[in-house]
Amino acid sequence: MVADSFYGNDFGFRHAWRQRGLSYAVPVEPTTVVWTEDPNRPLPPPKGKGRPRKYPPLESLPRPQDLGTLAGQLPNSAWRLVEWRQASRGRQRSRFARLRVWAAHGWRKQEHPLRVAEWLLVEWPMQSTEPTKYWLAQLGAQPVGRRRLVRIAKARWRVEWDYRELKEELGLDHYEGRQWLGWQHHVCLVSMAYAFLRWEQARLKKNFWCDLADGEEVAANHPQ
Question: Nearest CA to 156 among 30, 17, 3?
Answer without folding.
Answer: 3
